[in-house]
Amino acid sequence: MKKKHAPETLEKIGKARQGREAWNKDKEWSELTKREIGIGKRGILKWVKDKKLQKIIRRDYAAAQICEENEIFKPAIILYAGVIEALLKYKIDKKGTEDFVKLIEKALQLKLIKSEQANHMNTVRDFRNYVHIYKEVSADLEIINEGIAKLCRQLCDSIIATLKNSDKNELLTRRCT
């Protein structure tokens, strides 16, 4: 079994706590909480400055991953699409007046996303509408499946990275002008 920390690191940690036990020792964490903490540590949503929104996005993104891994594809698709829409609203329309279609169009016009991403977003948006059971019943084939959930996850990851990088580009542009 691998050790998580080098001995000198453990010694520093021990000294910093001054003999007190770690606050999280023997704490039982839910899978969702563990996943949320992992997402936070990776810092992929650090660019979302609204802390309440960041927390909710982190929770839904983590929940979507858990649903996908447990082959619960419909909620995964809905959650991933919701994360994408929330990120676009945060970046483009903080008042929240635009619908998903308009957000995708604006993001493309502002060159925040590529046309391929916009096409995939429209596909994901269509699949998210299968939240309505009768819409799913009226479909001729099995629409909600692992492939669509995977597409949603990959698109969500791509959009997070793209918008994070656009934030960095905006900073660079402001500094240069």
Number of helices: 8
Q: How does the helix and strand content classify structurally?
A: mainly alpha
Element-by-element helix/strand order: HHHHHHHH
Query: What is the end-to-end distance?
Result: 53 Å
Chain oligomer state: single chain
Gyration radius, rounded: 20 Å
Percent of residues in helices: 55-70%
Q: In one word, what is the shape?
A: globular
Strand content: under 5%
Low-confidence stretches: 171-177
**What is the count of β-strands?**
0
Largest sheet: none
Q: What value does the average pLDDT take?
A: 85
Describe this structure in words.
- The protein is an all-alpha fold and 177 residues long.
- It is 69% helix and 0% strand.
- The chain has eight helices and no strands.
- It is globular, with a radius of gyration of 20 Å.
- 24% of the residues are buried.
